[in-house]
Write a structure and sequence with these properties.
The complex is a heterodimer of chains A (108) and B (319).
Chain A: E1 4-10, E2 22-26, E3 32-39, E4 46-52, H1 58-72, E5 77-84, H2 88-103
Parallel strand pairs in A: 4-5
Antiparallel strand pairs in A: 1-4, 2-3, 3-5
Chain B: H1 4-9, H2 17-23, E1 31-33, E2 58-65, E3 68-75, H3 86-109, E4 120-125, H4 135-152, E5 158-162, H5 171-177, E6 181-185, H6 195-202, H7 212-219, H8 221-227, E7 232-234, H9 238-249, H10 253-257, H11 265-281, H12 286-292, H13 306-312
Parallel strand pairs in B: 3-4, 4-5, 5-6, 6-7
Antiparallel strand pairs in B: 1-2, 2-3
Classes of the chains: A alpha+beta (108), B alpha/beta (319).
Chain lengths: 108, 319
């Protein structure tokens, strides 16, 4: 019944930090999620915390997040996700969008 | 997020709560208060197994229009239908109280040109009313917001902005009606009981919620504009809302008081006159009322663009 909190730590090889101190993307809508990324000195690691109503998908979360970290080479980043039943591919897409937002120059 | 320039020319209907908040005030002037980083979330939803959001579904902050500080409250319909609970309700009330405090401080600091710095509260409604997961706290929030409106009366304008997917329904329909000014785009809808609920309780013969044309004729902005519930009907651009807000900010408090729907004996009598009219004429459709107010061909009105509509429409003349 209660919400689940999942926490993961990933070792990153490339450890590319994000440009902004913090960045936010998305809305916790049905089948969607929001991502909060913060630049933090984690010795190169990526920490992820997921709050979700869905049970039994801990391994899927771990693999999706690991893929994101490996594909992008980010490091020293804390990622927090509020999820409302997003599918794995939506999770991956939102993470990539959130990273793009965290790296973006402020446009006019 | 899209840049301010893109937001200004972009659709209000398609924008999320944060984009609306940023785009409705002057370029680069918006500062969010209790944003995602503050993680000010509902304590009730986790125990009920319902997903949470860092801003509890409502973006609050302050920006500028000219010299006017504008306290923006912007609701996100994608998060639990924009419903109001304890935390986002408190964010609403806190923003209005902050506007009042700012008004007093500015009045003391600038007694000669206070009018041009007079603060304004702007609420972008996208909500079905009370969040049922925390219903008592949500109802209390509605009452506190209405109370705060009364404190603002004749001191600073409180403006409703309605033009998002969910519309403005339930208790928040009352709240919007209690503000000084209402600005809508064509897609905007205001009501108390939502169409689906009326159908469920009273039957399809009473109100067919799947008939979108009927729903818009009854709750939509064009109808509200003709009846006088909506003060400004604007194009579906965030910039158009920004311009209408600038127009309100430039008005005197006396003019703004004159745009209200409720809140005085005279206005109650005006509303009673409307109730009597509806009782006497027994309209079968909003179009009957549109015709009564001088629109010879009411069936044409829903088909028109906002621009065409504004050129030809006849509205109820207020006594």
């Amino acid at each position: 019944m209660a919400l689940q909190t999942l926490e993961f730590t990933f070792k990153s090889e490339a450890t590319q930090a994000i440009a902004k101190p913090w960045s936010h993307l998305g809305v916790t809508g049905s089948g969607d999620l929001e991502v909060l990324m913060e630049k933090k000195d984690l010795g190169g690691d990526v920490k992820a915390k997921v709050i979700t109503p869905v049970k039994g998908f801990d391994q899927v979360w771990e693999r999706m997040l690991a893929k994101f970290v490996n594909d992008t080479g980010v490091g020293n980043v804390s990622i927090e996700i509020n999820d409302d039943n997003a599918t794995p591919i939506v999770v991956y897409m939102r993470l990539r969008q959130a990273l793009a937002e965290a790296q973006a120059e402020e446009a006019e | 997020m899209r840049s301010w320039n893109e937001l200004e020319t972009g659709s209000f209907f398609d924008a999320n709560a944060r984009e609306r908040a940023v785009g409705m005030v002057d370029k680069g002037s918006f500062t969010e208060l209790l944003g995602p980083l503050d993680r000010f979330m509902s304590p009730h939803l986790p125990v009920l197994g319902t997903a949470v959001e860092f801003d509890d579904g409502t973006v609050t902050g302050v920006g500028l229009i000219g010299k006017h500080p504008v306290f923006v409250i912007s609701m996100e319909g994608k998060f639990i239908g924009g419903a109001i609970g304890e935390v986002n309700g408190a964010k609403m009330v806190g923003s209005i109280r902050l506007a009042l405090k700012t008004a007093e401080e500015l009045k003391a600091a600038h007694p000669d040109d206070y009018e041009e710095r007079r603060p304004m509260v702007v609420i972008s409604f996208e909500t079905g009313g009370v969040r049922l997961h925390e219903a008592n706290a949500g109802l209390l929030a509605h009452a506190e917001v209405m109370d705060a409106f009364q404190d603002c009366r004749k001191k600073l304008p409180v403006v409703s902005v309605v033009g998002s997917k969910v519309g403005c329904f339930g208790g928040m329909g009352f709240v919007a009606a209690a503000t000084d000014v209402i600005i809508m785009n064509e897609q905007g809808r205001i009501g108390l009981t939502g169409p689906e609920v009326i159908e469920q309780e009273m039957g399809k013969e009473e109100f067919d919620a799947s008939n979108k044309a009927l729903v818009y004729r009854t709750t939509g902005a064009k109808h509200k504009y003709i009846i006088g519930d909506c003060n400004y009907l604007v194009e579906d651009k965030i910039g158009a809302f920004h311009a209408a807000l600038a127009d309100v900010a430039a008005k005197s408090m006396e003019e703004i008081e004159g745009m209200r729907r409720i809140g005085s004996l005279k206005l109650v009598q005006e509303q009673q006159g409307l109730v009597k009219l509806v009782g006497d004429m027994q309209p079968k459709d909003s179009m009957d009322l549109w015709k009564y107010y001088g629109n010879e061909d009411p069936a044409e009105l829903p088909e028109m663009t906002t621009e065409e509509f504004l050129k030809v429409v006849k509205r109820r003349v207020r006594p």
